[in-house]
Amino acid sequence: MVRTIFESCRSSRETLSGKSSESTTPRTKRSQRGTLPAETLRRAKRGFNAPVSHWFNGPLEAVGRRAFDEGALGEWFEPREVDRVWSEHRAGSADHGLLLFAMTGLGLWRSRTGATL
User: Fold this and answer.
1) Given this model, what pLDDT does residue 2 score?
2) What angle do CA 11, 14, 15 make, to 5 degrees?
3) Whether pTM exceeds 0.85
4) In sequence order, which residues have a C-beta less than 8 Å from that of residue 82 and are 6 or more positions away?
5) pLDDT at residue 9 above 70?
6) How far apart are CA 11 and CA 19, in angstroms?
7) Helix, strand, or coil here: 87?
8) How far apart are CA 93 and CA 85, in angstroms?
9) Residue 23 half-sphere exposure, CB side, CA atoms within 13 Å?
């Protein structure tokens, strides 16, 4: 079922955009021959991660904690465990950036929609 939905979405995107879902990486690499070093062009494609872990150690910590409180996520999650996650993240003993990002989004969503389980 999931595969069918995925394939349907992909073919719809291709139809609407007129573009194939094939990777553009080889074409991009060819276009940069002579500009970039050969070792750069030979290496595997890398992703880019937003620095959410860094953000939650600074300006977004207050946003994340407020989203947890305003979204009443204490009804869904054990507040002591959430505090432990924040403490570990702030201390640098664990990187919980993606978890905190997800919980912040959930808290913001719930505070706006009032969703319940």
Assistant:
1) 44
2) 85
3) no
4) 68, 73, 74, 103
5) no
6) 10
7) helix
8) 10
9) 7
Residue where the block lists tokens 């959430």: 82
Contacts with 73 (C-beta within 8 Å, 6 or more apart), sequence order: 67, 82, 103, 106, 107, 110
| 19 CB-near residues (< 8 Å, 6+ apart) | 13
Q: 26: pLDDT confidence band, cut at 50, 70 and 90?
A: confident
DSSP class of 36: B
Domain boundaries, the chain: 52-113
* Paired tokens of 72: 């009443």
> Could you tell me which residues come within 8 angstroms of residue 69 by beta carbon, excluding any fewer than 6 positions away?
107
> Cα(113)–Cα(53) distance, rounded to whole angstroms?
26
DSSP string, 20-31: -SS-SHHHHHHH
* pLDDT tens-digit map of 75-114: 989 999 999 999 999 999 999 999 999 999 999 999 999 8
